[in-house]
Amino acid sequence: MLEIRRTLGCVTVDFNKLSLPSLFRALGAPQATRTLAGIARDEDLGPGGRPGDLTSAVAISPRGRARALLRAREPGVAAGLMCVPILAAAFSRSLRFTLHPAVRDGVGFRAGQTLGTLQGPARDVLTFERTLLNLVSRLSGIASLTRAYNRAMCSKGSVRARLFDTRKTTPGLRVLEKYAVRCGGGFCHRVGLFDAVLIKDNHIASVPLWDLKSWVESTARKAKLLRPRFFEVEVDSVDQLGEVLIARVGGRPAADIVLLDNMGPKLLCRAVDMRDALAPGVELEASGGINLETIAAAAATGVDRISVGALTHSARIVDLGLDFQTRQTHA
Q1: Which member of 140, 249, 272, 313 has the greatest number of CB atoms within 10 A?
Q2: Domain map of the chain by residue range?
Q3: Cα-flanking dihedrals φ and ψ of residue 201, to 5°?
């Protein structure tokens, strides 16, 4: 997270207006990938890369060279390809990964399509194979699921809602998984606790309804001193929503966004009407109980944002493989 802060300088950066390469850098993904690469190398080869790949050491000639194609076994959306050269460097300086034409992060691929070529010493290619597949398959799975949610969200026509991720990510992989959501056409919510303020139900559990407006106003004033990307408040009833919407700081709504927790389409419609009447500039975010079957109905209510934890915590991998074209197999 220190690397992200250093990259951002000021945390008011709008990640969702950046191109994918710019987002990759702004999130601190190169440093996160280098850190991950060291962990993955030590998992497979031992601390510091020793004793190494015992199988390749006894089965493969040290003089052998290999060329292998990264291929899709099923259709999906690419994510994590920008990580591969950084990952490879932790295993061997002699490995070279080349993307194939028309393939890049954020682009869909078909079953059987070649995504890139890995070349280098045969031992190194074999040693790196599983780490390469593990990460790119995982991130492409997130991008592919995000694309599916986006399509489902718009299946009943054009909507104003945008699809957002959450902090329900794999520890240590957050910035890469959030990058993968963007590859699939989704948007970044807050990166962590450091860049935005989101008042959750546990923060206001002891605040009575009659005091909620005043409490939100006071908290928003303190938050502005920290210059967060946004100030958001979660509510689970329309009564709470009404109090938050009438809260003001400097003549403007105290909240930038209100999160509507576990509300069905009827309640979401009431919430949109209430927002339009009391604070038209405040965005409404639906969250909780949203899946591929329900997202279209939620989006049709007129909310501005829909956040779905499943994009990262429930995505299955996309089946990718490394097909060797040339290899010296005898030690």
Answers
A1: 140
A2: 2-152+316-327, 158-313
A3: -60, -35
What gap in Å lies between CA 207 and CA 282, rounded to an integer?
A: 22
pLDDT at 61: 92
Point out the catalytic residue in the list 67, 96, 168, 224: 168
Full DSSP string of 264-292: -HHHHHHHHHHHHHH-TTSEEEEESS--T
Positions in the chain whose pLDDT score sits under 70: 1-12, 327-331
CATH topology assigned to domain 158-313:
TIM Barrel (3.20.20)
Tell the residue number behind the tokens 């009659």, with chain if given: 210
Given 63, 151, 200, 252, the catalytic residue: 200
Quick: pLDDT tens for 249-284. 999 999 999 999 999 999 999 999 999 999 999 999
Which one of the listed residues 3, 42, 261, 319 is annotated catalytic?
261
Q: Is 234 designated active site?
A: yes
In the annotation, is 129 catalytic? no
Instruction: Tell me how far apart the alpha carbons of residues 263 and 236 are, in angstroms, rounded to a whole number.
Output: 7
Catalytic residue among 105, 124, 129, 234: 234
- Burial of 104-129, coded b for 16+ CB within 10 Å and e otherwise, reads bbbeebeeebebbebbbbbbbbbbbb
Termini Cα distance of the chain: 44
Q: Is 130 a catalytic residue?
A: yes
Residue 200 bears catalytic tag? yes
Tell me, yes or no, if the two domains 2-152+316-327 and 158-313 fold the same way: no
Alpha carbon of 84 to those of 9, 62, 133, 241, 326: distances in Å?
27, 23, 10, 45, 20
